[in-house]
TrEMBL record:
Sequence similarity: Belongs to the nitronate monooxygenase family. NMO class I subfamily.
Domain of life where this protein originates: Bacteria
Described function: Nitronate monooxygenase that uses molecular oxygen to catalyze the oxidative denitrification of alkyl nitronates. Acts on propionate 3-nitronate (P3N), the presumed physiological substrate. Probably functions in the detoxification of P3N, a metabolic poison produced by plants and fungi as a defense mechanism.
Annotated catalysed reactions: 3 propionate 3-nitronate + 3 O2 + H2O = 3 3-oxopropanoate + 2 nitrate + nitrite + H2O2 + 3 H(+)
GO molecular function, one term: nitronate monooxygenase activity
The protein's required cofactors: FMN
Keywords: Detoxification, Flavoprotein, FMN, Monooxygenase, Nucleotide-binding, Oxidoreductase
InterPro entries (alphabetical): Aldolase_TIM, NMO
Organism of provenance: Streptomyces xanthii
Protein name as it appears in the record: Probable nitronate monooxygenase
Signal peptide (from-to): none
GO biological process: response to toxic substance
Length: 357
């Protein structure tokens, strides 16, 4: 195993940074305390909001943790298409008695301000989603002792991360819940994502960087599988979303194993970017018509999603979930890390016995 990240924590288990509230300080600290790597999600937060959460984690644990940043987004949306979708959502605004959000609410997610904080007051790990940082940004973080990770969904993106001198890549399979972390949002490639095991193998043969594998992982045996395929660490999101420390709404947690929700789909309905969630009314009605317009659609639907969550209406929420959601276990985060580690050890032992037979 590479020492780029593995020397920071004993178990090869990373808690995915889930923007929108799930990856709160309590969850990140609990995972880190148990010997995994907990992550804060800085996406959709102000720079000060991110900083306050970092301070909270430090007050809860002295162990390493990470912070995830969203890369600034280029202007690719068609304003006319955004306007059409706004009119389509008018009925939702009436139903939830809330106005739609401003689609022009910003595309950079406070990126520069967040970077400035992370350079001045470093954390052990910073990861990037929706693009690749420049070599200058990576080097600036490395100079203050921060390890850098870039989320990738293709071999080409992994090669770009290696060129930028990142310390590791987070290889995201199409099974993953929430947003696909593609560097460029190309509608022509919708539905063309690669499964995790195939993608890990391809990336392993193409770049020299350590690999964090993520997408649909819910059991220790799956962690063993991705490590065998060439990954150094496994990152789990949906598995930790249902933990009591998670900041996700209770109804979102319960939906993971609710028989009412039988499958997931990639959709642009809630944010304008492909993201995997449980299929509900909102996704079915609006998914086919949502434009490629991130973060404009995200800003527009944010008040609707918040209103639905307040009402406990799972049919109007973005119920982000990976393909393994039915395997969710509502265990305390620290206990889940221990269970996963024990399952991983058992899977390795079984594989060793088979190999010796």
């Amino acid at each position: 195993m590479s020492s780029a990240l593995n020397d920071l924590f004993p178990h090869p288990i990373v808690q995915a940074p889930m923007a929108g509230g799930a990856s709160c300080p309590e969850l990140a600290a609990a995972v880190s305390e148990a010997g995994g790597l907990g992550f804060l999600a800085a996406g959709y937060k102000t720079a000060d909001g991110m900083y306050q959460e970092i301070k909270q984690v430090r007050g809860l644990t002295g162990r390493p943790f990470g912070v995830n940043l969203f890369m600034p987004q280029p202007e690719v949306a068609d304003p006319a298409a955004v306007d059409v979708y706004r009119h389509q959502l008018a009925g939702e605004a009436t139903w939830y008695r809330t106005p739609l959000g401003d689609p022009d609410g910003g595309r950079d997610d406070g990126y520069d301000a967040k970077l400035a904080i992370l350079r001045d007051d470093p954390v052990p790990v910073v990861s990037f989603t929706f693009g690749c940082p420049t070599r200058e940004v990576v080097h600036a973080l490395q100079r203050v002792g921060t390890r850098t990770v870039v989320t990738v969904t293709t071999v080409e993106e992994a090669q770009a991360a290696q060129e930028a001198a990142a310390d590791a890549v987070c290889v995201q399979g199409v099974e993953a819940g929430g947003h696909q972390g593609t560097h460029r949002d190309n509608p022509e490639t919708d539905g063309a994502g690669i499964g995790l095991l195939a993608l890990v193998t391809q990336v392993r043969e193409a770049v020299r960087l350590p690999i964090v594998a993520t997408g649909g992982i819910m059991r220790g045996a799956q962690i063993a599988a991705v490590l065998t395929a060439g990954a150094d660490l496994a990152q789990l999101g949906t598995a930790f979303l249902v933990a009591p420390e998670s900041g996700a709404p209770t109804v979102h947690k319960e939906a993971m194993t609710d028989p009412l929700f039988t499958r997931t789909e990639l959709t642009r309905a809630f944010s304008g970017r492909p993201a995997r969630g449980l299929v509900n009314r909102f996704l079915r009605e609006h998914g086919p018509y949502a434009p490629a317009a991130y973060p404009q659609v995200h800003h527009m639907t944010a008040p609707l999603r918040k209103a639905a969550a307040r009402a406990g209406d799972t049919q109007g929420m973005a119920l982000w979930a990976g393909q393994g959601h039915r395997l969710a276990r509502a265990l305390p985060a620290g206990q889940l890390v221990e269970v996963l580690a024990a399952e991983l050890d058992a899977a390795r032992a079984a594989a060793g016995q088979r190999g010796a037979a």
